[in-house]
Amino acid sequence: MVVVGAIAAFAVARGVQSLAPSSATATSPATLRPGEQVVAPLPSTDAAPVEVPPTEPRLPRSVGGDGHGEADGAVPDGTTVFDDDVPGVANLDPTLLAALRRAATDARRDGVELHVDSGWRSAAYQERLLQQAISKYGSAREAARWVATPETSLHVSGDAVDLGPSRATSWLSHHGAAYGLCQIYRNEPWHYELRPDAAAHGCPAKYADPTHDPRMQQ
Ligand SMILES: [Zn+2]
To answer: How is the chain split into domains, by residue range?
Structure first.
């Protein structure tokens, strides 16, 4: 709606400008014969299309009706890294969780709230997500770009967390390394793992996607 409004406002501005005698150059009213009218040009319809970034595919936050609830790692909306009563948070690796809490505390001072979209997951929940991804992407090969197997998933071992919203991941992309928190995959700006050396040496180069991660080759 904003884009349409902006284009409409632009067209109106052009129309008004072309009708205003003081701004007319080529067709000044003084050069018109009696009865002739200044015809405003039609509003431009060839405005450059406004690029809308594609929505990146994300995992469902919870899986309803199939028995995988919070106990399996599904995380309610609005969960933070301080929610000890949510297994998806409580079962994260303690060192990762401590780093997340330090970062979240400082982010909050900057007015940025860190939310956990997914943290630890049971193997059964991970398998369910994998099957859903295979249905969605049409093949196990394509699904592997987004969802690991229960055997390889860093979420199942409690060593990975998916964070949001985008303001939070943007904050982390600038400040996360100081806490040892690193984005691992270029196609998953929300997926963070602990890299303790990052505070001193920065985060390691990102893999394009999980299929390039040697840990996933099992
Ligand atoms: Zn993840």
So the answer is: 1-52, 70-216
CB-based contacts of 162: which residues, under 8 Å, 6+ apart? Answer: 58, 59, 116, 117, 118, 119, 155, 188, 190, 191, 192
> What pLDDT, in 10s, does the model give residues 135-181?
999 999 999 999 999 999 999 999 999 999 999 999 999 999 999 99
Asked if 59 contacts 147 with a C-beta cutoff of 8 angstroms, the reply is yes
CA of 66 to the centre of ligand 1 (A): 21
Neighbours of ion ligand 1 (CB under 5 A): 160, 162, 191
In the reported structure, the alpha carbon of residue 133 is separated from the centroid of ligand 1 by a whole-number distance in angstroms of 13
Quote the pTM value: 0.70
Question: How far apart, in whole angstroms, are the C-alpha atoms of residue 25 and residue 12?
Answer: 19
When computed from its CA atoms, the radius of gyration of the chain, rounded to whole angstroms, is 26
Specify the CATH number of the domain 70-216. 3.30.1380.10
Whether the Cβ atoms of residue 123 and residue 73 lie closer than 8 Å to each other? no
In our burial notation (b when 16+ CB lie closer than 10 A, e otherwise), range 25-52 reads eeeeeeeeeeeeeeeeeeeeeeeeeeee
**Which residues lie below 8 Å from residue 101, measured CB to CB, with a gap of 6+?**
81, 82
**120 burial type by CB count under 10 A (0-12 exposed, 13-18 middle, 19+ buried):** buried
CA angle 208, 212, 215 (to 5 degrees): 130
